[in-house]
Design goal:
The protein is of the alpha+beta class. It has 14 helices and 31 strands. A hairpin with a 5-residue loop joins strand 10 and strand 11. Helix 7 crosses helix 8.
Length: 574
């Protein structure tokens, strides 16, 4: 088929604006998936994704569609909407010529709507705007339409009004994709050149790369090379997505397809690398910047015998999710484990759930920590440029919250009944629940987007927790100097309430930069050593009490401090 009848496009939107539902209708309209096999969120094959109702992984599919008696190939890549998975979206857009910008008629323009729109514009993509859920009684279609016209370079006549749920006007949307998004450029006669936009590891066939072919063609059995890693291998299979892998004899310029490389280490076939035929010289494509983990957790098996199993599970997941980093670490209370880096809190939550399900493990994540930079001039912490989208009624409360979170306002603007606030603030505030606080004060309407804004000097101190002089490493952290005293008292009080009594007293202390600033004490069990005495003089009783006192003092020195796991878990969760 002539490549002039090929269209490569993505669906981009904020979380829960209907991307997966629209993808389902496109699969039905194009008869890519039969009715008897169709199920909701068809492209979201990950069970966690399906249960949560959110897309966490990009998913390509090749569809055939007839318009005006002509056959077209439509290569769709469905994308996540949550900010933690923006890296997935950026990789997708680099493989396309256009994108459907989907906006919920009941919610209007939200954080990731704007973020993804600007990402698509940077990639010079053609935008097809669509307002979804127009069938709902609470739809604010005209208001949302005005938002799109005011905030983006969009003409009213370009907007398609649809219901992804009922299928209303989805055929018009398909026609708009064909009419407005250009066919892929590229030459079949040029040397083969393709971009890896995703990859996964198959233990039997090695690394399977998802690729956009820009020039030339590749047949099964031909030898390929990778520009960055300098590796070479045989393309043991090539093909397209239906959405499952479908083998073909050849893939060529303009296609979105896959290559089974046989490479056994996914790090040797990294996302963003350029594929060429062995012996042919091509210029490397720009590729992608490697995402840097921003939040780190200690990850420990609840059963210490499962350490090796956890290591194998982390290694397996990292083969398909290269944004994860992990190294071994040891806690004096939890034993051996790993320090794992994630792109965000949801990313960490999803990976934890995957490990527990896929490897049948029970694991604990310790308190999250951000990535600090330490140098001669002190400690620097990561800052983000935060964009908040909210109904304008909540602006006052949002400003007050951001000020308490050490935020510096950069801009405030209004569109219709909505407000956009831009702040620069420490990434730590996201880890400490800024997103949920915003949801709470805005009745769930505020949404956020953020990007790293560099590192800034921070006035931080080490807050250590000790019990009977023993440093409880998993409860220690860096905190802001102006909050340190309050947090020290809070932690010692919570521990006093949570720790069960022992046969010796437990002295809980909080130290800031080595100086004890807070103290609590859990008294020992009081054993009545005189209960068995039926008589006797005062001297004998005093001897027994003195012996008990000396025994407790010795026990306090010799006893090994133990903290029940449930106490540690409750402190970490709080």
């Amino acid at each position: 088929m002539n490549k002039t009848n090929t269209r490569n496009f993505a669906i981009i939107a904020h979380v829960d604006h209907g991307k997966s539902t629209l993808a389902d209708r496109l699969l039905e309209k194009t008869e890519t998936v039969s009715q008897e096999k169709m199920q909701e969120q068809f492209l979201d094959q990950n069970p966690i994704s399906r249960e949560r109702g959110i897309t966490i992984k990009l998913a390509p599919v090749r569809m055939n569609y007839r318009k005006n008696s002509e056959e077209y190939i439509l290569n769709l890549i469905d994308t996540p909407g949550h900010v933690d998975f923006s890296y997935e979206v950026s990789r997708t857009l680099a493989a396309c010529e256009g994108a459907i910008l989907l906006v919920d008629a009941t919610q209007g323009v939200q954080a990731q709507t704007v973020a993804h729109y600007h990402s698509a514009v940077r990639e010079n993509l053609f935008i097809v705007p669509a307002i979804n859920k127009i069938d709902l009684p609470e739809a604010r279609t005209e208001e949302v339409e005005k938002q799109l016209l005011e905030m983006f370079s969009i003409e009213k006549a370009d907007i398609i009004y649809i219901s992804a749920k009922t299928g209303q006007n989805v055929d018009k949307l398909l026609d708009a994709v064909i009419d407005r998004i250009p066919p892929p450029e590229g030459s079949l006669e040029s040397p083969f050149k393709a971009l890896i936009f995703d990859a996964f590891y198959d233990e039997h066939r090695g690394v399977i790369v998802y690729t956009r072919i820009f020039d030339g063609s590749l047949k099964k059995g031909e030898r390929i090379g990778l520009t960055q890693s300098k590796n070479s291998s045989i393309a043991s299979e090539v093909g397209y997505f239906t959405p499952f892998l479908k083998e073909e004899s050849e893939i060529s310029a303009g296609d979105i397809g896959y290559i089974v490389t046989g490479i056994k280490d996914i790090r040797l076939a990294s996302v963003g690398d350029t594929i060429h035929k062995s012996g042919e010289r091509v210029s490397a494509m720009p590729g992608y910047s490697q995402p840097k983990p921003m939040v780190f957790f200690g990850m420990y098996p609840r059963n210490t015998h499962d350490l090796q199993k956890l290591k194998e599970s982390l290694h397996k997941i990292s083969l398909n999710d290269t944004s994860i980093s992990f190294i071994e670490e040891r806690s004096s209370f939890l034993g051996s484990g790993f320090r794992v880096g994630f792109l965000g809190l949801l990313h960490a939550e999803i990976v934890k759930e995957r490990i527990e399900r896929e490897s049948n493990l029970d694991i604990l994540l310790t308190m999250p920590h951000v990535l600090y930079e330490e140098g001669d001039s002190g400690i620097k912490e990561p800052y983000i440029e935060l964009t908040i989208y909210s109904p304008k009624d909540y602006v006052g409360a949002i400003i007050n919250l951001c000020e308490t979170k050490k935020g510096n306002m950069l801009n405030l603007s209004y569109y219709q009944n909505s407000a956009i606030l831009k702040y620069e603030l420490p990434y730590t505030m996201l880890v400490r629940g800024l997103s949920s606080d915003l949801k709470s004060i805005s009745s769930g309407y505020a949404t956020i987007d953020y990007e790293l804004a560099g590192f800034r000097q921070a006035d931080l101190v080490d807050l250590r927790i000790l019990i009977n002089g023993v440093d409880i490493d998993v409860l220690s952290e860096k905190v802001y100097r102006d909050e340190a005293m309050f947090l020290a008292r809070e932690k010692t009080k919570k521990l006093k309430e949570a720790l069960p009594k022992q046969q010796f007293r437990q002295i809980i202390q909080a130290a800031i930069s080595g100086n004890i600033v807070a103290r609590e004490e859990v008294p020992a069990f009081r054993k009545d050593v005189l209960s068995k005495m039926s008589g006797g003089d005062r001297t004998r009783k005093d001897k027994l009490l003195d012996k008990q006192k000396k025994g407790k003092q010795k026990l306090l020195v010799d006893a090994r401090v133990t903290i029940p796991q449930e106490v540690l878990f409750s402190m970490i969760r709080s």
